[in-house]
Amino acid sequence: MNLSHPSLRPALLVFLLAFSGAQTYGQVEVSVPTLPRVGLSITGPLAGGATEIVSNDLKRTGMISPVGSGSGDYLASGQADESGITGRLVSKKTGAEVFNQTFTGRGRLAAHQFADAITQAVTGLPGFAASKLAFISNSTGSKELYLADIDGFNTRIVTHDHAICGSPGLNHDGTKLVYTSYKSGYPDVYLIDLPTGSRTRIAFFPGINSGPSFSPDGSLIALTLSKDGNPEIYTMSLDGGSLTRITRTRGGETSPSWAPTGDRLVYSSDDRGSPQLFISSASGVSDMDHLVTGNSNCTKPDWSPGGKSIAFTARIGEQFQIGVFDVASRTAQLITTDGGQDPAWTRDSRHLVYSNNGRLRLLDTVSRESLPIPTSVGGCGEPTVSH
Amino acid sequence: MNTKCRLPLLIALTIALAACDDSQSPNYTGMGGDNGGGLPGGDTVNPGDASSGIPPGPRGNFNPDNCDYTTLAANTVYFDFDKSTISGSERGKLEAVSEWFKANPGHSLFLAGHADKRGTPEYNRALGERRALAVREYLVGLGLPAAQLYTNSYGSDRPAVDGDTEEAYAKNRRVEIGIIVEK
Q1: Which residue is closest to B51 within chain A, CA to CA?
Q2: Distance from B159 to chain A by nearest Cα, in Å?
Q3: What is the C-alpha to C-alpha distance for residues A357 and A379, in angstroms, rounded to an integer?
Q4: Which of A221, A243, A244, A316 to substitute to test the interface with B, most B CBs within 10 Å?
Q5: Quick check: helix, strand or coil at residue A199?
Q6: What confidence tier does B182 reach under pLDDT thresholds 50, 70, 90?
Q7: What is the pTM of this model?
Q8: CB atoms inside a 10 Å sphere around CB B5
Q9: Residues A204, A199: Cα–Cα separation, whole Å
Q10: Contacts of A289 (CB under 8 A, 6+ apart)
């Protein structure tokens, strides 16, 4: 085993941290951990493409090492054709079948679904290979809304507003999209039902209507409105009713993101001078819990689907970096060094999609490894991920 | 640009747009029109909340992209980084705007707030809005009628100057004063 391989170092580090309480470092030195290895053996007319997709998806988790069919701790075998993939996972240690399932997603989706099932079975964490990305790109000359698979494939333009579009938010299953558009001349919030393509303008008060974010159950959005003066956080239902004001400050509040329990919101406020993160009850009770991150300029928080972490954008000198706030210990740390902003969690609460210099990237918050997401357009920003 | 030559261009543009696509012609007032947008359903908010300053007025029935930003270009108000307070050195410009307004009765103004490119787009949109509302509040304080002062924020999406220098950033942190040329 080659210990100098970069992808193995983070795993070793995690192991050291996890076991340092129980074992001496001398003992750890000889018991080198490895990622669980999954052998792939896919046959059928679409075997080549499916093998490549599943292999890349497993590698991207940072928790699984895909290997050839002859080796591994698990064997993932399958039959890939136009109707999808029939996939089976067997533990080589016990010989037991872990699952035997048919994945019927169209095109590349079936292979992503197979990879997610393997990831869930082997690591206990949900895979995110079948997740969709929504983001903004200015590659046509105006900021429009785009969708892509999380591996960058199937990049496609959604809007042709020839205006400014921004701040997309996907609902839990990726079937509904909310975003801001200046189509009317002013920033309004629109809702798109993706299966039908129908679009409705749902918030168009005087002032700005912006930064919409779906509640975990998809029944409400939180957003920024300035109709009562400076920009404040509100929640409302998708049909435009049940408007509830959440904040009441002299500053500006932006980028609300829901706790997975749906009872609280995290957002950025500059009520105390420079922008800081706060948590408030989603019911409209006036309370503001200041999250002390150690950084004087924090914006665009995103609450992880597991609930334990809040990612955010921190300004450090002239650069912007991604930070993560741990909700239980109330401590924060920066997890990028090469710049980044607008982080969004994937469904495993371990990876983040973010933007840096017009490109989307995927960051493993444990290993800190960052990979480019090869969307077919440049000038990208404000990514969001379906869970 | 001479403002006198703008009108024929505007008419030509309007005709061209109308010829292109009637069904897609934008409605600049929002569905609520001059009543201020609005939505069905219960609103738990007291609109007169004192902590939030003067709320933005309803959206007017005009195309905000057709404002004349040339006449009062010298009165563009600039801001410090991350700030929406109008500094002492910029107040004279708004006093001059107030004089112009009183000498040209019947006009309405469009206050367009902007931020420099640094930071997240959502934060910058809110910052541009606060700058526009701060200018509106200042002009109301000088005696201008709030109903003739419209606002919008373009965040960091419409820079006056491209570039990554502090000089460029300083020119982009601004509120431009437009004159509404069509009602």
Answers
A1: A250
A2: 13
A3: 8
A4: A243
A5: strand
A6: confident
A7: 0.86
A8: 9
A9: 14
A10: A278, A279, A280
Nearest Cα of chain A lies from the Cα of B1 at a distance, in angstroms, of: 23
Query: Given an 8 Å threshold on Cβ–Cβ distance, is A230 in contact with B130?
Result: yes
What residue ranges of chain A have pLDDT lower than 50? 1-32
Give phi and psi for A24, each to the nearest 5: -80, 155
Q: In the structure encoding, which two tokens stand for residue A4, read together? A: 């100098």
**Which residues of A are less than 8 Å from B127 in CB distance?**
252
Contacts of A277 (CB under 8 A, 6+ apart): A266, A267, A268, A290, A291, A293, A298, A301, A310, A312, A325
Give the integer Cα–Cα distance in Å for A384 and A369: 19
User: Who among B43, B65, B122 is closest to A255 (CB)?
Assistant: B122
Q: Which residues pair with A84 in a beta bridge?
A: A81
Q: Are residues B125 and A187, on separate chains, in Cβ contact within 8 Å?
A: yes
Which H helix or E strand runs over A18? Answer: helix A8-19
Q: What is the pLDDT of residue A33?
A: 58
Give the separation between CA B73 and CA B55, rounded to whole angstroms.
Answer: 25
Q: Which residues of A touch B130 (CB under 8 A)?
A: 230-231, 252
Give CA separation, A265 vs A50, A170, A260, B62, in Å. Answer: 40, 16, 9, 36
ipTM of the complex: 0.89
> Are residues B119 and A320, on separate chains, in Cβ contact within 8 Å?
yes
Best of B39, B81, B122, B137 to mutate (most A CBs within 10 Å, chain A): B122
H or E segment and range at residue A88: strand A84-91
> B82 forms bridges with which residues in the sheet?
none
CB A37 within 8 A of CB A1: no
Q: Which of A167, A186, A232, A237 to substitute to test the interface with B, most B CBs within 10 Å?
A: A186
Q: What tens digit of pLDDT does each residue of B92-148 get?
A: 999 999 999 999 989 999 999 999 999 999 999 999 999 999 999 999 999 999 999
> How far off is chain B from A196, nearest CA to CA, in Å?
19
* Tokens describing residue B181: 């040329």
**Among A354, A384, A348, CA closest to A366:** A348
* Token code pair at residue A151: 């591996």
Is A230's CB within 8 Å of B44's CB?
A: no
Q: Which amino acid makes up residue B46? A: N
User: What is the CA angle A36-A347-A99, rounded to 5?
Assistant: 50
| Angle in degrees, CA A280, A294, A167, rounded to 5 | 50
